[in-house]
What we know:
It is a single chain. The protein is mainly alpha-helical. 77% of the residues lie in helices and 1% in strands. It has 24 helices and two strands. The chain has helices at 3-24, 30-35, 42-69, 73-97, 105-110, 113-147, 154-169, 174-202, 207-216, 233-249, 252-258, 264-299, 308-316, 319-352, 355-360, 366-394, 399-410, 412-423, 433-449, 451-455, 464-478, 492-498, 502-507, 510-520; strands spanning 426-428, 480-482. Keywords: Cell membrane, Ion transport, Membrane, Sodium, Sodium transport, Transmembrane, Transmembrane helix, Transport. Residues 484-521 are annotated as: Disordered.
Amino acid sequence: MSPAFLxxxxxxxxxxxxxxxxxxxxxxxxxxxxxxxxxxxxxxxxFGMVGTTLSGVTFVSVPGAVGRDGFGxxxxxxxxxxxYLVVAFVLLPLYYRLKLTSIYHYLEVRLGRRAGQSGAxxxxxxxxxxxxxxxxxxxxxxxxxxxxRLGVPFWATNLVILLMILLYTYEGGxxxxxxxxxxxxxxxxAGLAACVWxxxxxxxxxVADSLEQMRAAGLARxxxxxxxxxxxxxxxxxxxxxxxxxxxxxDQEMMQKNISVRTLAGAQKNMLLLxxxxxxxxxxxxxxxxxxxxxxxxxxxxxxxxxxxxxIVTEHLPPAMQLIFFVALVSALFPSADGAITALxxxxxxxxLGMQRRQAAQALDERTAMRWRHRVHLGxxxxxxxLVMVFKWIDSASMIGxxxxxxxxxxxxxxxxxxxxxxxxxxxxxxLVPAVVIAGPLLCALLEHWQHLFFGTYRLGLELLVVNxxxxxxxxxxxxxxxxxxxxxEGTGAAGAQEGTGAAGAREGTGAAGATATDAN
Length: 521
């Protein structure tokens, strides 16, 4: 298919996103940008979050990894289900009870201002690195398949795509993204189903026949019972649960959409529906991966990993399927970047700049606050541009491995902070919290480097996230003391009062820890 025609289709798709953005962002204000005026429909949010959760990395990396890991990703998926249940019935009730706009304000109320800022800072690092890695993967595929043949340099492709995202998220924020994510998820899943159907038809196989061939080729293996392996069954299940708790329940981007639903019950329905859809879709992605690995030898394709799916599409599939693939790929691209930039802007403005606190104290008017938000939004777009170029320089063969490795180091401190707040009633020395949350990843790096001395043949894998969280939890315990309800030298009640939450802040302060510890149990 002509690269110029594919280029035209992508811009037409972007035009549709702009039309949705225009319709949803009229009369938008900061409340619209941050939490969609608390008026989002739960079913719409759930369906749209599928695209955000999966992204272009899942679309390309999960099928590509089947040749190496078989269907082993189902072990992690089982852990995801457990994690989503914890998010729905432990974390969401807490966020709704405290009426949060930024979930890291919980850390501020419970542990102190520096704890809240530390949580927000690690989220910003985590989401920035993860989202730009995902963005790079899809931009690189578009570049190789279309833009290189048109003579467009990579940096220009990267710049134009980020400008597109900026245009339709600049005003509406979450209010717009809830609708554009729904559209994009539809495109991605339609492309997935079409590719599965075409490959089955091309090889003249039924679903049962294809599964039998995958089993014979060793592609359908699920369980790994080798305790020393990074893919060991229970290690993957536990890691999957904690990845979901940290990367969904303690992630502003994911929770920002959830808490835009009017009621807690609606948000919980959203999470349960999201879980069901994700299990089905991830199973379908793995099945697609098996089909690709059966088809590749027949077609003489030697590409592996992230390059397998694009190679088969661009070299061996008819023009109509190429078009469907690229629309689906672009549909997977935008949700992973637009929501991230919006959530990063929200967290930076609320948690680090203290925008809501200043507005509550009447030190900042709405117009000035919007001007601040616009500048921060532009700044994150520029940062994304730079980091995608860095990932282009690194050029890893499997970005899903890179992303999960980054998550282990950067979401671990969030897991430790929230876990300490939920499961204990202790009061921390707030000024020492930043040192503790930085020490956790550093200790993990040392442990991973010298793991052969500590564990012999055993190798750390995804459980590094949990180990990181435990290091931070232990550090917080060392810099804390038993606290009494509503009191603390540097912590809980004081943080609530400082934030302008007044009596409510003091009431929800250390006392909230007791309530939420009960929820966790």
